[in-house]
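JOB MANIFEST
job_type = single_chain_structure
chain_count = 1
residues = 317
[input]
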Amino acid sequence: MKTGRLFLVATPIGNLADLSERAQRTLAQADRILAEDTRRARTLLSRIGVATRPLSLHAHNEAARTPRVRRWLARGEDIALISDAGTPLLSDPGERLVAAAVEDGAQVAPVPGPSAILAALAVSGLPCVPFTFRGFAPRKAGARARALEAIIDAAETTVLFESPGRLAALLAELDERLRARPDAGERRVAVCRELTKLHEEIFRGTAAEAARRFGERTPRGEVTVVVEGRRGRRRVDPAELDSLARQALAAGLAPTAAAREVAARSGATRSEAYDAVRGAGRGRSSADPAGPKTRASAGAVAAGGPLDADPNPREED
């Protein structure tokens, strides 16, 4: 028996006219339609005259639903998967199902169309290639801080989603972290709201300008944020990093504070700076002309021992 096909159908992100003829035909001919939100799906399907009743597939039931869909595909049924809006799987459910279908040898076919990610990137006025999509910004403070630092360190443009209620806080924290990083430089951003809809808004400016603009009022609708990558970052000399790391440790700074100091003075990323501090603390840098005992002793005295330096170095005979 011929295996069924799984179609990943992109749907409008706001303007119904963006639904392609192929997407409409695929939805009309599918044996079953899986949707993240069946109520929204029914609205879309009724507008294009498709009577097939959608079945739910969302984050809370994908694991349980996938075995049944695999059986449908094995019987030769054609399945269409749609998300609330845009292209399925991008910050939406479906990864588990697609992986299972591929494993079973079923045909998985894209039906391309609207994408808030690509639409925002294209109109941002920022470099489009390369870029990184990070999904929704994390809600928890620690994860959010790490994500923002990674965005600041990234050489490529970053695209992310954020809810309207948290947008102002995201932009304010991004601006605050940029100001605390002299090495980071000013960044341009684009805030794209309600793309393709009647009240579409595209704000372009610096992170500080965006923070002020959206701090004054809470926006409505779907929001996509595009952040410029690092510009003109110079090549960092490993020997320079090692020297700065040793100076910071010798000044009594803790490893994390030393890494911040090295990054600010050199233009290196935080991860590069921390690697240099770890290397200086261990006394293993190839750029250090001193002997192993001198390096171990210097690392132990400067760092107080937290970077694996020998706390009891032997004295020279």
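[summary]
The radius of gyration is 26 Å.
Strands lie at 5-9, 32-35, 55-56, 79-82, 107-111, 131-136, 157-162, 188-193, 201-206, 223-227.
exit_status = 0
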